[in-house]
């Protein structure tokens, strides 16, 4: 990371968000079911539950991964909002271990009927949606007409999907507006949002891609080394050959294995780190020229930097600086 006079960071953003989530942890039913070391890792929460439709959605800040031996008849869909961790999260939902990187928007989808574990140091800010297995499966069958839809493929890797991200955000927005308590003769807005999420999960699970095996993923120690190297040198030119050598795989297979392990392509992962650092520099270093930021972060030139920044944030670097 490039440092200057300011100290704003993802960690600061997470701590700010922690102060905004004001619901009592003690009033959350699941909180008391966690063993003490696990419950102490929870820092803040906002939660919504519907009686009519068995689901719960929460936004949570945790200092480390929340893992429990407790099983339940639920699926859990977890979307990373932001993470200040420099190491990936190790996840196992009973279909083999995999790693979830720290890029915002990454999903993991687990079956809590199986023994499961999550290991990693945060802090993490995430949104988690818990759904009754039988209700979700029955609803997907009813909506799609398919009788044998398996969601198992989604339990074995982290993944990214902008449509699903928007749907989860919409559901959380509806709940924050009180629509999870809405009484209607027909399906409520929350019911419709849940139906959309169920259909999207079914579509993602049915994607026509080869099933992954252990050999189709980077080993945890390899991906950890690669991610540590990327986080250290993301402002420099990083070639596929370099990263493949660190992972100890051939360059021709590296990009596919990285994507299968982390959920995004290596080029996109590096770009997100650069844009995140650019946002920090634009905010905290007002005297640092945009051209200098572009050069420091390894972009080809300033126009290239400006195009990528606007593509990722929706505004130009100059406009972002004016409004932060």
From TrEMBL:
Domain HTH araC/xylS-type: 224-323
Keyword hit for Cell membrane: no
The keyword Transcription is annotated on this UniProt entry: yes
Keywords: DNA-binding, Transcription, Transcription regulation
Gene Ontology molecular function: DNA-binding transcription factor activity; sequence-specific DNA binding
Pfam family name, one: HTH_18
PANTHER family, sorted: HTH-TYPE TRANSCRIPTIONAL ACTIVATOR RHAS-RELATED
Name listed for the protein in its UniProt record: HTH araC/xylS-type domain-containing protein
Organism of this sequence: Blastopirellula marina
Organism lineage string: Bacteria, Pseudomonadati, Planctomycetota, Planctomycetia, Pirellulales
């Amino acid at each position: 990371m490039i440092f200057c006079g300011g100290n704003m960071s993802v960690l600061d953003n997470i701590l700010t968000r922690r102060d905004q989530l004001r619901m009592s942890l003690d009033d959350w039913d699941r909180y008391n079911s966690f063993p003490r070391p696990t419950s102490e890792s929870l820092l803040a929460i906002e939660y919504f539950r519907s009686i009519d439709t068995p689901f719960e959605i929460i936004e949570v800040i945790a200092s480390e991964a929340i893992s429990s031996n407790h099983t339940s008849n639920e699926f859990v869909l977890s979307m990373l909002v932001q993470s200040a961790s420099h190491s990936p999260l190790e996840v196992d939902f009973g279909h083999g271990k995999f790693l979830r990187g720290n890029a915002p928007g990454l999903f993991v989808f687990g079956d809590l009927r199986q023994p499961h574990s999550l290991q990693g140091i945060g802090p993490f800010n995430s949104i988690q949606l818990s759904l009754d297995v039988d209700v979700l499966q029955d609803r997907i069958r009813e909506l799609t007409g398919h009788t044998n839809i398996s969601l198992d493929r989604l339990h074995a890797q982290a993944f990214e999907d902008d449509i699903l991200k928007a749907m989860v955000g919409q559901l959380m927005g509806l709940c924050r507006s009180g629509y999870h308590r809405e009484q209607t003769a027909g399906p409520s807005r929350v019911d419709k949002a849940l139906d959309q999420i169920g259909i999207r999960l079914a579509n993602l699970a049915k994607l026509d891609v080869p099933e992954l095996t252990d050999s189709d993923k980077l080993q945890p120690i390899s991906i950890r080394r690669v991610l540590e190297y990327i986080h250290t040198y993301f402002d420099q030119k990083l070639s596929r050959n370099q990263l493949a050598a660190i992972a100890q795989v051939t360059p021709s297979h590296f990009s596919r294995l990285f994507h299968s392990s982390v959920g995004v392509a290596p080029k996109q992962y590096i770009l997100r780190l650069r844009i995140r650092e650019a946002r920090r520099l634009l905010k905290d270093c007002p005297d640092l020229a945009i051209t200098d930021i572009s050069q420091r972060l390894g972009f080809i030139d300033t126009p290239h930097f400006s195009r990528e920044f606007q593509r990722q944030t929706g505004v130009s670097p100059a406009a972002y600086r004016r409004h932060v």
